[in-house]
């Protein structure tokens, strides 16, 4: 046996010919300008492109961490709903689609609710995650928004809702559409109790979501260039037989036409919301108060 040729040389060759496994998620391409951004730089910028200022979609945990003081908050228990009330099936069974979405996002459904300090003011925040079946409004999402309103009433705390949705969830049919009046009633209770409700419209907010709770806030804010509209552009053009403006249904277009109150950059969102919360709750900010964001810590979900 030739020990050099049969043992040593193959081992040396394997060392020098072994391919380096490089993760494929270290760099992200901006969908607006094409700039390649290192993943840590993108996370530090709250997923805002440093080259063109394009606001990419952001996850629920990242949103909570950027808003609550020191990243400290408690999740609100939003309860359970019937998994597949209509036994719906298209190309896949509805429960299978839910399992895929839950595995992909790590969330039970599209809407998550938490409460904690925002500039030292106890605040309830709900976030709609577009990554979960397009943020579609179903029974679970509607129930979560209602539970958030109930928690805000219980704590007498401002309620802030971040929307991102393609509309109602077709797999739940009429039960999905019923969430529009249900959430409307819950938000009306907030108004009657004098509890502030602020809506932040993010990209995209469309369909039945825009036609219900997304437009019932005391104040409406939008992120730059977010898509905000009820029907799709092509459907509207075919209906009215006219060419729509290039910026139609953008946040800037809606602001110019009085549909929203302000457009706020993501880096200024916490500062703006804190100022509005204090204004609406008549709580002036002490000059000695300050808040800083660090990686989020999540407490055990509290009963709602």
What's the arrangement of secondary structure elements?
Layout lengths: L2 H15 L9 E3 L6 E3 H6 L15 H8 L4 E5 L17 H12 L5 E8 L2 E8 L10 H17 L3 E7 L7 H5 L1 H15 L3 E10 H4 L8 E4 L5 E2 L3 H8 L10 H6 L5 E2 L5 H12 L16 E6 L2
Parallel strand pairs: 3-11, 5-6, 6-7, 7-8, 7-9, 8-10
Antiparallel strand pairs: 1-2, 3-4, 4-5
Helix pairs in contact: 5-7
Q: Low-confidence spans: pLDDT under 50, at least 5 residues?
A: 291-297, 300-304
Taking all Cα atoms into account, the compactness measure Rg is 23 Å
Shape verdict: globular
Report the total helices: 11
Alpha-beta classification: alpha/beta
Give a count of the beta strands, DSSP E runs of length 2 or more: 11
Q: What's the CATH class of the largest domain, please? A: Alpha Beta
Mean pLDDT: 89
- The CATH H-level superfamily of the largest domain is 2-enoyl-CoA Hydratase, Chain A, domain 1
Strand percentage lies at 15-25%
**CATH fold-level topology of the largest domain:** 2-enoyl-CoA Hydratase, Chain A, domain 1
Query: Number of domains in the coordinates?
Result: 2
Helix share, percent: 25-40%
The major beta sheet can be summarized as: 9 strands, mixed
Give the name of the CATH architecture of the largest domain: Alpha-Beta Complex
Order of helical and strand elements: HEEHHEHEEHEHHEHEEHHEHE
Distance between the termini: 74 Å
3D structure, described in words:
The chain has helices at 3-17, 39-44, 60-67, 94-105, 139-155, 173-177, 179-193, 207-210, 233-240, 251-256, 269-280; strands at residues 27-29, 36-38, 72-76, 111-118, 121-128, 159-165, 197-206, 219-222, 228-229, 262-263, 297-302. Helices cover 36% and strands 19% of the residues. 36% of the residues are buried. The protein is an alpha/beta fold. Strands 3, 4, 5, 6, 7, 8, 9, 10 and 11 form a 9-stranded mixed beta sheet that branches. A two-stranded antiparallel ribbon has the order 1-2. The chain contains 11 helices and 11 strands. It starts with a helix and ends with a strand. The protein folds into 2 domains: 23-56, no CATH class; 58-302, 2-enoyl-CoA Hydratase, Chain A, domain 1, CATH 3.90.226.10. Helix 5 links the parallel strand 5 (121-128) and strand 6.
